[in-house]
Amino acid sequence: MSQLALTTNPPARRRQWLRWGALGAVVLVPLAFAGLFVGALSGSDNALENIPAAIVNEDSLVTTTAADGTEQNVFAGRQLVTELTASDAEGFDWKITNADDAEEALANGEVYAILTVPSNFSKSILSISGDDPVKADIAIRTDDAHSYLGGAVAEQVGSTMAATFGNAITAQYITGLYSGLGDVGKALQTAADGAGELADGAEGLTDGIGSYSEGVDKYTGGVDSLAGGLGTLNTGAAGLDKLTAGARQYTSGISQLYAIIQPINAKIQAGTPLTPTEVYTLNLATQGLQGVSAQGASGKKFVAGVGTAVYGIQGGISKSASGAAQISGGSAALRSGATQLESGAAKLADGAGELSTGLADGAEAVPVFDEDTSKTAAEVASDPVAVDVTTDNAVTDVGQGIATFFVPLGLWIGALAVFLVLRPTTNRLLASTANNGRLVLASLVRAGIVTVAQALLLVVLLHVSLGVSWSLLPATLGFSLLMALAFTAFHYLLTIGFGRAGLVISLFLLAIQITSTGSFYPIELLAKPFQVISPFLPLSYGVSGMQGIISGGDTGSVILAAVALFAFGAGSVAVALFAMRRTRRAVSLGLVPVTA
């Protein structure tokens, strides 16, 4: 009867439910780890917009003058800031501030990156179309003391942002290039028009030269005809000179004969006999008349000569007139040809001017670079914006970055393992007259010896295998020992208060802390509930302190983490004293077994 009552009393049933509850909790541990990770990172696709970052815009306004004389203000830095801070912009939660405030916020961990737009940003953007193209630099500054992967995320965001903004600049440059090609096309069209006028002028000049040649031929023929007519006229005129002289001699001879015969004829008419002298004179006169008769026969020749001369004169005059007419016609052709020559020459001059102007405009519209400048311009145009990333307190070794998380994690798991092996107390100690403080201290010292050894091994691993500077040994050793003791006190509290079920609780808490601790990635990437509880978790301070020590960051964050861990350990000890008193009382009343 008594045995039945023992097995069915409330303490026995309570212990049985605790065992089954512990088994159920153990079954749920893997699900808890996986579920918490999934829940914490469920909104990470858009969580990047929650990561705070600062923008410092130091860009200076640049005024440019277009080809038509109009002025345009260029403030590329403001355009970049506007795009980054737009409500629909992807990327960090950018906050516009000045350089001093941004630096302070980065040091305090309020922002994970600072993006600085330099004063020559707009000038560099405009240089892409000048003779000395340079890339526009933007500076991104991060700090590994607060998040190891925060700097990498900022660098990636910065590179993406620079590529996007650079593509827009490249598109504008190509648009301007095509616009410039349009100007070149217009200039070449002007040159083509000038070339057309040159062709028309050349054709007109050819026609003018033909007309001029034809006129010259007619003029030459007229001159030849005129020269021939003038020669014939001159010959005929020479015959007339001879005819005049012969006529003059003939008239003189007749006049002389008339003077001789007239007196003798008067005597004969009067019937006066002639003297022998007069008879002799009459005979001489008769002979003279015969000579004159002979000359009269020759007179026909003279008459014929006169006709010939006159005909020659008329022929010469006719040829002269024909030659003059040809000269007149040739002169007209010459005038027409000269006019066409003048018109063609004018068109040639106009066409040559337009061709020269068009080619000059085209040459001015096409930039001329040497080989090095052309290569530089091509590189700048393809990637106009460069990102210069600097990291404060940089952790250069990946292993060191990982150690900032896994050292605290290892010490937590180490403390849990200690109490899997060691019981928090014994029957003898609980039944002794020792006060609660002495019992708690004895259990903590016994477990602490093991966890301190664990911390020493981890510190050796940090400096020997991972290359952490030996100058940091006092800090790494002291902080690791503090973490080990704080975690030991907390796990002692769990075991003294909940028995072995407390270790299951530790696993659940570990799952929560792993997902909620901002270590590799910024805490803002997590879901909101995990961000809220993160500052209250001991592992968060352990990671923060190790990051500050290894990266060489602000000592304030290390001191804050040390104080928080000390408070966490001291609080665990204080609560453990209360749990010890409660346990001893329960044991004395037979409510729980001593070995719990």
From TrEMBL:
Keywords: Membrane, Transmembrane, Transmembrane helix. Pfam families: ABC2_membrane_3 (PF12698). One of its GO terms (cellular component) is membrane. It is found in: Membrane. It is a multi-pass membrane protein. NCBIfam families: pip_yhgE_Cterm, pip_yhgE_Nterm, xxxLxxG_by_4. GO terms for molecular function: ABC-type transporter activity. The keyword Transmembrane helix applies. Its main location: membrane. The keyword Transmembrane applies. This is ABC-2 type transporter transmembrane domain-containing protein. Residues 26-148, 375-577 form the ABC-2 type transporter transmembrane domain. The chain crosses the membrane at residues 20-41, 402-422, 443-466, 472-494, 501-521, 558-579.
